[in-house]
Structures are given as structure tokens and as C-alpha cells.
Specification:
Blueprint lengths: L2 H13 L1 H4 L14 H13 L9 H36 L9 E6 L2 E5 L2 E2 L2 E5 L3 E8 L5 E10 L2 E5 L14 E10 L4 E4 L2 E5 L2 E5 L2 E6 L2 E3 L4 E6 L18 E4 L3 E5 L2 E2 L4 E5 L5 E7 L4 E7 L7 E5 L14 E9 L4 E2 L2 E11 L2 E6 L5 E2 L4 E4 L1
Antiparallel strand pairs: 1-10, 1-14, 2-3, 2-8, 4-7, 5-6, 5-8, 7-24, 8-9, 11-12, 12-13, 15-24, 15-27, 16-17, 16-22, 18-21, 18-23, 19-20, 19-22, 24-25, 25-26
Helix pairs in contact: 1-3, 1-4
């Protein structure tokens, strides 16, 4: 074999490098030549060439240039592979900050513990049900069972102290949850979807979560995204955004359910001691009961009176919503109510805010302040 044929063989071997790079022998090594191998053999050829018949310089230059071109093509292919891999990785890593200001819908499935602080969960039911929430760690192991009791149709926040069923504090991290609801035909999983504007991004354990109505949502759980209209007003504010806020109103609503008046006694405020008349009305503005209170029992300041849910004739009122007014013979009377919105209750297709554990409801249109 001539000296120049060796170079040709080397170049041919290197041209096969790209297709053979992934082909492994039993020992895990490739069979093609690398740059160092080529140069080593090239130097050896030059050192051992026949001085009477030296290698053709022009042919040598062409072969070296050909080798260089092949190497550049291989490097370009490697670079393209890196770029494709990078693009795929970028697609998998969702940028949470890109959602800020947008209106999104997402499935609510997780809560996080960060330095002992626990974020809230969220769920909604379409009808009255007994609800229990199961919490799972990253390995899918159930760590806590959170009984929510019997709830009305509506939207609710999930409060969790970050401990397991034995009361042990759990490690920081993301925990998924499953909401099970029993409306009379057994427990079934409830899929809850939270919609609203992304107000901010909160980083928990190094991961960005979307803040939607005070609930942290994993960006990977987002199902739809739309642009928020700059011309939108507070009238279009979702009722769910009131969850966790403190609201005030002058028109508390009473709910009668299963023949029982829900919640605490009816409250009212007087500027001075006075004889008082409390009148209860149904949703059709029909008077259903009247309660008379003497000045000896109704003093200036905060007062309460219990309503048994009966009409003036002693019959039980039907289930539904009622409201009341207070009239004082001396001074003035009002029916203020204020507290944290603990739930959203749906009655006959209309949603109302539930105030703390008072049992009172208020309509969004009657809110006088929000904190």
C-alpha cells in the first residue's frame, strides 16, 4: 500500500465517524477514527515515508482539507443535536413568570410546605356533600386525611397544618391532594378547576407557583390561558376572589336548611336602648315573622335575637333564604356584618359569600368594603 493510500483510508474511516459514533462494540468503544488517531497516524506516515518517493504535497493538502471538512460537519451535527435537546428541555420547563397578568384555568391539585408554612388548597362541589381530602407525598403515599364535614354546593379553601395523621410535622415540599365527595351515592373524586388572573409568582422550595385568588397553582396544571382585558372592571371580578378576604355588608342573609335556621343568632346594632321590632322576610319580600324586643333587653350597641324559623302562625318556613330588618322606637338600628369569607355557597343557581362560622351569607352586590 502506498503512503498516500493510507491517508485516503484515514479520511474514509473518519467520514464514517458520524454514523458509527452510536455503534458500540462489545467493549463499549467505537470502531471509527478520532482526530487524535488521525494525526498520530499522519505523523507516523510522514516520519516513515520513503525519502526517494515522498508523499505528494498537493494530495496531502487535499486529504487534510477533506478531513477538516468532515470534522466540521460532524461538529455542526453535534451542535444541532444539542440545540434540539435544549429546545425540548425548554418546552418541558414552564416559565411561571410568563403567566403573570394572564387569565388562566387550572386544575387545583397540590399544596406546598416551605419552612413550615403551608399553602391553601381549593375545591368546589356542585351539590351538598360530605367531603374528605386525602394528601399524598411525592412518592404517592397517603400522609394525611382532612375531613371537611358536610358542605353546601360552592367553592372552598383547604386548610392544612402540614402534619400527618399522627400529628407529625412533614418535610418541606410539594404535596398533592385528592378530594372525595359523597352526595348520597358513595364517595367520588371531585375535579376542581380554578380560574382567575395570575397576580404573582411565589417560589416554594425553588419552584415557581402561580398565585391565583390566593391559591398557589403549579404551572404544569394550567389547562387554558387567555389575555386579561385592560378595560375590565371590578364588576367582572370572580366571586371566588373573595375567598379569604374580610368583607363588610349591611344586609346579612339567613339560610334555612332541612327545617333549621343555620348559624348564630340574628345580630343588630342600636345607637340607644329602645323597643325594637325585628321583621323577617323571605326571598319574595313577603313578611314571614315578627319579633318584638323591649328596651330592657335591647341596649345601645351590639344585640342579638334568636329566630326559630317559624312563621307568626307557628308553622315552619320552607328551606331557602331569608333576610331581616330592625326598627327601633328610639335612635336608629342597623344590621352590620363583617368577617372573613370562608366559603362560597350556591343557592338556586346564585352564589353567596359565607361569613366565617356565623352561618350568615351576603351577596356580592351588598358588600360595602373588602380587606
Amino acid at each position: 500500500m502506498s503512503d498516500n493510500s493510507i491517508l485516503s483510508s484515514l479520511v474514509s474511516g473518519y467520514e464514517a465517524y458520524d454514523t458509527q459514533a452510536t455503534s458500540k462494540s462489545d467493549t463499549g468503544k467505537t470502531t471509527s477514527l478520532g482526530t487524535e488517531d488521525f494525526l498520530t497516524l499522519l505523523v507516523a506516515q510522514l516520519e516513515n515515508q520513503n525519502p526517494l518517493d515522498p508523499a505528494d504535497t498537493n494530495q496531502f493538502t487535499d486529504q487534510l482539507a477533506q478531513f477538516s471538512q468532515v470534522e466540521q460537519l460532524i461538529n455542526a451535527n453535534d451542535k444541532l443535536d444539542e440545540m434540539v435537546t435544549g429546545v425540548k428541555g425548554t418546552e418541558q420547563e414552564v416559565d411561571a413568570n410568563s403567566f403573570v397578568g394572564l387569565t388562566v384555568t387550572a386544575t387545583a391539585t397540590s399544596m406546598t410546605i416551605d419552612n413550615g408554612a403551608v399553602t391553601s388548597g381549593f375545591y368546589e362541589v356542585d351539590e351538598p356533600a360530605e367531603v374528605i381530602v386525602y394528601v399524598y407525598d411525592a412518592n404517592g403515599t397517603k400522609v394525611a386525611s382532612l375531613s371537611q364535614g358536610e358542605v353546601e354546593a360552592g367553592s372552598y379553601l383547604i386548610s392544612w397544618d402540614g402534619t400527618d395523621d399522627e400529628g407529625n410535622s412533614l418535610d418541606d415540599g410539594e404535596y398533592t391532594y385528592e378530594v372525595m365527595a359523597n352526595s348520597g351515592d358513595g364517595y367520588k373524586e371531585v375535579q376542581s378547576h380554578l380560574s382567575g388572573t395570575v397576580d404573582a409568582v411565589s417560589y416554594q422550595n425553588g419552584k415557581g407557583y402561580l398565585v391565583i385568588k390566593g391559591v398557589l397553582v403549579d404551572p404544569e396544571d394550567v389547562t387554558t390561558v387567555t389575555s386579561s382585558s385592560s378595560s375590565s372592571s371590578s364588576d367582572s371580578t370572580s366571586i371566588i376572589e373573595y375567598l379569604g378576604t374580610t368583607v363588610s355588608s349591611s344586609h346579612p342573609i339567613i339560610q334555612v336548611e332541612d327545617g333549621k335556621v343555620q348559624g348564630d343568632a340574628l345580630s343588630f346594632s342600636l345607637t340607644a336602648a329602645s323597643d325594637v321590632t325585628v321583621t323577617i322576610y323571605n326571598a319574595d319580600d313577603e313578611k314571614v315573622d315578627t319579633i318584638e324586643i323591649s328596651a330592657d333587653e335591647a341596649t345601645g350597641g351590639e344585640n342579638e335575637v334568636t329566630w326559630d324559623g317559624l312563621t307568626n302562625s307557628g308553622h315552619m318556613n320552607s328551606d331557602g333564604l331569608y333576610y331581616y330588618t330592625v326598627k327601633a322606637d328610639t335612635g336608629s338600628a342597623s344590621t352590620p356584618i363583617s368577617g372573613e369569607v370562608s366559603a362560597i355557597t350556591s343557592v338556586d343557581g346564585t352564589q353567596y359569600l359565607e361569613i366565617g362560622d356565623t352561618g350568615r351569607l351576603v351577596s356580592v352586590s351588598s358588600i360595602t368594603s373588602v380587606e
